[in-house]
Task: inverse folding
DNA sequence: CTAAGTGTACCATGCAGCATAGTACACTGT
DNA sequence: ACAGTGTACTATGCTGCATGGTACACTTAG
């Protein structure tokens, strides 16, 4: 389903959250589709069920999935996902910081922006 | 000298590192200028000397500052800072992820890119 | 030379977050 | 009834971070 990076600074449950989020937003997991159960996914990616549940809980809190007790977890209607203002503000801050990192490394502003545009263009293509 | 955010996910020594890095790369701290001593800075921002030292050690490792034992710590010649290939690769990955976060939040690609350009433009202005 | 200030290196402690293991319970569908 | 589902809880160990404290070598100012 997706890959985990144990060396990453991100915790496992965050990686699971982000990976699923990407699969949902890109439509690979369609609205209404059933996600693997907590126990099943935990076996697949060999992590603890609690860790998977933590990811699911977070995704539900953010509105990406919904749960029917005793039945399973399903992908929500992403067209209904309102853009969370606070989350957007955090994302802006993170983006600004990521961009500044180029400058800290010694790149000129123009070089940094050129790299930034490259990366975004590549993302546009790969997400189609 | 700068502000710390205790609520941040970033550790304190990382914040100190990044803040100093910014002051150096923007020229606010000039090449050759003496940095506050470990003990002095630790008092100023009320953190443990060990934490400040950790930041200084990291900055020295990355070439932003240099040390003369018994004398002090000084800002290196930033024109000599070579762009670390590994660091650049990490920065690219971080940037890509920050940008994708916009998409995950439900923004269209065009909206996301528009916001990205806004942020970069603002950065260009504030860094001059 | 002496004292103060500097970087540097340790060690011990406490804390928080994360991941794990295990158990238990309520719910649903077959 | 049973299997599968989500959910909750406790306990444990690990890691990184921050702190407090001590110690040593070095340099500069007096």
Result:
């Amino acid at each position: 389903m997706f890959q985990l990076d144990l060396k990453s600074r991100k915790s496992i449950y965050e990686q699971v959250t982000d990976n699923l989020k990407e699969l949902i937003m890109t439509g690979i997991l369609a609205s209404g589709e059933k996600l693997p159960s907590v126990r099943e996914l935990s076996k697949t990616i060999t992590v603890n069920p609690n860790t998977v549940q933590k990811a699911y809980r977070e995704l539900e809190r953010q509105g990406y999935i919904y749960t029917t007790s005793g039945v399973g977890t399903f992908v929500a209607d992403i067209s209904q996902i309102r853009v969370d203002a606070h989350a957007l503000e955090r994302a802006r801050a993170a983006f600004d910081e990521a961009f500044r990192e180029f400058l800290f490394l010694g790149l000129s502003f123009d070089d940094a922006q050129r790299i930034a545009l490259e990366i975004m263009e590549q993302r546009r293509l790969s997400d189609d």
About this structure: Residues 85-127 of chain A form one domain. Chain A touches chain B at residues 18, 21-22, 25, 78, 81-84, 87-88, 91-92, 94-107, 109, 113, 115-116, 119-120, 123-124, 127 (CB under 8 Å). Chain A has a mean pLDDT of 92. The longest helix of chain A spans residues 85-104.
